[in-house]
Design brief:
Layout: H1 2-25, H2 47-50, E1 60-63, E2 73-78, E3 81-87, E4 97-101, E5 108-113, E6 123-128, E7 131-137, E8 147-152, E9 155-161, E10 171-176, E11 179-185, E12 195-200, E13 203-209, E14 219-222
Antiparallel strand pairs: 1-2, 2-3, 3-4, 4-5, 5-6, 6-7, 7-8, 8-9, 9-10, 10-11, 11-12, 12-13, 13-14
């Protein structure tokens, strides 16, 4: 179910993000003499930006923080403007954080992290105007990007994942204010989703399946609230404290619907509405039969010998 999948990934992602926040909060360590290895496969970044860390001679300034004879912080300049700074966070002689700057020398445009200190990049963050706009992560540390995140402010807007680690995207996720709204899964690795999970206020509400593999769902399953698990919390791109969870809409008698969202992913368009209320029951607050023409009429035949249909007999 989604709760186990999502919690497992979110837990791993939270650890990764926390390490990144730690690296940013404690930039007094780091170093090396060149950019961190090569970018992992699957990265959508600009290799030219990474070359800003290439430099020598008077264009490089180094600091040995722990006085062990090995530089731990390395600044690279071009024409007197800083274009890159690198940190060795654990004093092992390898670069763990690389930060790249725009032509003004202060506005960050890209940042790379090696979270497990193996000399390979595990996360690349991209910025526009100094604001974080998207991230790429290698969550299983195999030197291949498997998660691509797009940000709306500090909150998640969209995410694509290679959860099978085949080198191809097989999961598409969409968020409202950082809260998961819809997840689409390619379970047979054909490049198209066969399963959709729809959420309301972060809680799994409906599952759709494409059993005939025509690209459109043909099965629909409402998920009762008591079976849906905990509601998903908002995900933040920068590792900051998430906003309070959204209020869950109250049950409605008319079968309030939810939508799959405007993004088409690989399905070729919207898949329609969910139907039913948020509990997955879709019922009203009235008792069965109440207000109907047959209200009060019993479907049990009177006992033999009874003089009326009340079952009370003669007085």
């Amino acid at each position: 179910m989604i709760s186990k999948r999502s919690r497992g990934f979110v837990t791993r992602l939270a650890i990764t993000t926390a390490l990144g926040a730690l690296a940013l909060a404690a930039p007094g360590c780091g170093g090396g003499n060149e950019a961190v290895a090569d970018a992992p496969s699957g990265s959508l970044g600009d290799e030219a930006v990474r070359r800003q860390c290439e430099g020598s001679g008077e264009n490089v300034r180094e600091t040995d923080v722990n006085n062990d004879g090995t530089p731990d912080i390395r600044h690279v300049y071009s024409g007197g403007t800083e274009r890159c700074v690198q940190f060795d966070m654990n004093f092992d002689g390898m670069v763990d954080v690389s930060r790249f700057f725009d032509e003004d020398g202060t506005t960050i445009v890209q940042e790379e992290h090696d979270f497990d200190f193996d000399g390979r990049i595990d996360q690349i963050a991209y910025f526009a105007g100094g604001a974080l706009t998207r991230k790429e992560l290698d969550t299983n540390f195999d030197n291949r990007i498997d998660t691509w995140v797009w940000c709306d402010g500090r909150l998640y807007a969209r995410q694509e994942r290679d959860r099978h680690h085949t080198g191809e995207v097989d999961t598409w996720e969409f968020f409202d204010d950082g809260v998961l709204r819809e997840a689409r899964y390619d379970d047979n690795n054909d490049g198209r989703p066969e399963r959709w999970e729809l959420f309301r206020a972060g809680r799994l509400a409906e599952i759709r399946r494409d059993t005939d593999l025509d690209g459109e769902p043909d099965q629909q399953e409402e998920v009762p609230r008591e079976s849906a698990g905990d509601a998903e919390t908002a995900l933040t791109c920068d590792g900051s404290e998430p906003p309070p969870p959204p209020a869950e809409p109250p049950p409605t008698s008319g079968g309030e619907t939810g939508e799959t969202g405007g993004e088409t992913g690989e399905t070729g368009g919207e898949t329609g509405e969910t139907g039913g209320d948020e509990t997955g029951e879709g019922g009203s607050d009235t008792n069965p039969g109440e207000g109907m023409p047959w209200e009060g009429v019993s479907d049990v035949p009177p006992e033999e010998g009874s003089s009326d249909t009340t079952g009370e007999g003669d007085q």
